[in-house]
Design brief:
This protein is an alpha/beta fold. 60% of the residues lie in helices and 15% in strands. It is built from 23 helices and 16 strands. An eight-stranded mixed β-barrel has the order 8-9-11-12-13-14-15-16, surrounded by six helices. Strands 2-3-1-6-7 form a five-stranded mixed beta sheet, sandwiched between helices. The longest helix is centred in the first third of the chain and has 49 residues.
């Protein structure tokens, strides 16, 4: 930085050279001495060479080292100062006209003083120029032996230490200022890096990603193709809850290393926040991005070990491409986010590329979410009841409560449309509590031997105070807890969740019964059947009326029924539509059945009528 200051403002160098060359030329013309004309030419040649060097050697250009820049400047500066000092000394020695002596001595001394301040960034050069321009004049003054010149020589010699002191002070100020500026710059650069870096993984954070995206987007052209891959670790919160945040941070670190290893060298890999990562990079085509997404997914899913514990991390990926899915950073982010949303909705642990239909689906889902919240307040929802029948006696044992939504403008909306939206948005907790309360209130009006079954969402079960909500519904309805059956699906037990076990235990203690719904369609395990107090297993309808019905499905039903009876459980066959199916599952060992063969889901008043008719027929048989 100090050497660079020598090359700053070459115009000042040119002005100083022009002034001294002009003085030498005028002196030569006045004195009419050939030696002064030669001196003027020498000064002019050195000055031109210095100006050319100053303009040609850029202090910022690569290949120009500090030592080279300083050496070139020293040669030019010392040569010029010596030539100027000797020219002024020559005019004193030969005793030319007074005006010539004054002109040259004044120019030489003024030049020496001026450059000692200008070049104070390099003290050696500043002092050297001052001495070379001044000392020859002082020596010439002493050589003449004249008192006036001797006094001038002494004055000049005293001027040199005074100017050295001034130049030293300037140098100190320059050095300290530059050092402070460099320290501030390094600190600013460090703070900038810290502000753009995630402290846990060392990857870029959200600010770093935004900066990288802006920098990249500024350089894109029509042929540029970019990919944004949004990675979300599935159910990572449970890692933190079960194993602790330190272990969670180590898992994030390992995932970060794997992402960095598998991503292209020019990629920006960022931790977007929590358990989300983003890979942003250039690609050749869609196939290239598909291959990269596949490699990222496979790398994340590879088991890892933390303190000897083997962990398997699953992830969902959403991918958006530029320019296919957006021509700016914001649109690209929104598209990738939508793709990730669909990957998670579609069952997690998969990769989805953005598609235009996703935007329409999102609008539709948001519309359903808003209308569902309003429907709960406007009481547009209704509870229907489908009977579960004893296959031996034909008597209704239980009614399953099913929610129906009759929209004032769109008509009936199927549960398949709004239940998934309710689960994704968290509305399912409010909806589930409402269904339980309504079903319990209606069931309290039935005969005491008829129970009510209510489906529970895993999200509802894991919500804070879930068991308390069920207890309140039973208390307000005045329903015996032993008449309530809560149906849960196998997906609830994919993870060993303490909240689930506590929920089941708390309600079992007061008499609430639990049924395992859709058995055989997912993660069937005898472990949780043995662990939790199930009183009923519902065999999924795909084994009864699906496309794969046959000898294998019949054998599966028989095995489940035999296991259930051994454990003292009721076995329910779902989806019964024909008498042949009823007879088949009955022969296989199922003791309860449910399906259109017996009845569709009906409103509460029709459910009451079915029970009344059944009791009336039993009464007639008893009388007869």
């Amino acid at each position: 930085m100090l050497v660079t200051s020598l090359y700053a403002q070459p115009s000042s160098l040119a002005i100083g050279a022009l002034a001294t060359v002009a003085a030498a030329t005028v002196s030569a013309w006045i004195a009419n001495l050939p030696e002064l004309y030669v001196a003027a030419v020498i000064l002019m040649l050195i000055a031109v060479a210095r100006i050319v060097a100053a303009l040609g050697l850029s202090a910022d250009a690569e290949g120009n080292s500090t030592s080279t820049l300083e050496l070139v400047y020293e040669i030019g500066a010392f040569s010029y100062a010596l030539a100027l000092g000797c020219t002024a000394a020559f005019t004193v020695l030969i005793g030319t006209q007074t005006q010539v002596e004054v002109l040259m001595v004044a120019n030489a001394i003024g030049y020496g003083i001026g450059v000692s301040a200008r070049n104070a960034g390099r003290l050696t050069i500043a002092i050297g120029q001052l001495a070379l321009a001044s000392v020859p004049i002082a020596l010439a003054c002493f050589w003449t032996g004249k008192l006036g010149f001797i006094a001038l020589g002494v004055t000049i010699l005293l001027l040199i230490p005074a100017m050295i002191s001034i130049a030293s002070n300037i140098f100190t100020v320059l050095r300290d200022s530059i050092a402070a500026a460099e320290t501030s710059k390094k600190l600013a650069d460090k703070m900038q890096v810290l502000a753009r870096t995630d402290v846990v993984t060392g990857l870029a954070n959200r600010a770093g990603l935004n900066h990288a995206m802006v920098e990249t987007m500024m350089g894109v052209n029509e042929d540029s193709r970019l990919a944004l891959i949004w990675v979300d670790l599935d159910r990572f919160k449970e890692v933190n809850d079960l194993l602790g945040h330190p272990v969670g941070d180590r898992v994030l670190n390992e995932i970060a290393k794997r992402l960095s290893a598998v991503s292209p060298k020019d990629a920006t890999v960022a931790r977007f926040g929590g358990d989300e990562f983003i890979v942003f990079c250039s690609i050749n085509d869609r196939k290239d991005s598909e291959l990269l997404a596949s490699e990222i997914h496979a790398e994340i899913m590879r088991p890892l070990r933390i303190d000897g514990e083997r962990l398997e991390v699953r992830a969902s990926l959403g991918v958006a491409l530029l320019p296919d899915h957006g021509k700016d950073a914001d649109t690209l982010m929104q598209s990738a986010d939508l793709a990730l949303y669909h990957a998670k909705v579609g069952g997690r642990a998969q990769t989805c590329f953005f598609d235009g239909s996703m935007t329409r689906d999102l609008v539709r889902r948001r519309e359903i979410e808003d209308e569902l919240r309003a429907a709960l307040q406007r009481e547009e929802l209704s509870i229907f009841f489908q009977p579960i029948v004893d296959l031996e006696t034909g008597r209704i044992k239980t009614f399953e409560a099913l929610v129906r939504w009759f929209h004032p403008e769109k008509g009936e909306l199927k549960p398949d449309e709004f239940i998934p939206v309710a689960e994704e948005t968290g509305v399912i907790v409010t909806l589930g509590n409402w269904i339980t309360a309504q079903a319990a209130r209606i069931a309290a009006t039935w005969p005491e031997d008829v129970t009510i079954a209510v489906n529970l969402s895993p999200l509802q079960i894991r919500a804070p105070g879930a068991a308390l909500g069920i207890k309140n519904a039973l208390r307000e309805a005045g329903l015996d807890p032993r008449r309530l059956e809560l149906e849960v699906t196998e997906s609830l037990f994919i993870e060993d969740n303490h909240a689930t076990a506590a929920f089941i235990q708390e309600l079992s203690d007061i008499g609430v019964r639990f049924a395992l719904d859709d058995f055989g369609t997912g993660y069937s395990s005898l472990g949780y059947i043995n662990k939790f107090p199930f009183s009923k297993i519902k065999v999924d309808r795909s084994f009864v009326s699906g496309e794969q019905v046959g000898r294998k499905s019949d054998a599966i039903i028989r095995a489940v029924a035999e296991m259930g009876h051994t454990l003292g459980m009721d076995i329910v066959a779902e989806g019964l539509e024909t008498i042949e199916q009823v007879q088949s599952v009955k022969d296989a060992g199922c003791n309860l059945g449910q399906g259109y063969y017996f009845s569709r889901a009906v409103p509460d008043y029709l459910a009451a009528m079915l029970l009344a008719q059944e009791r009336e027929q039993e009464g007639r048989k008893a009388v007869g």
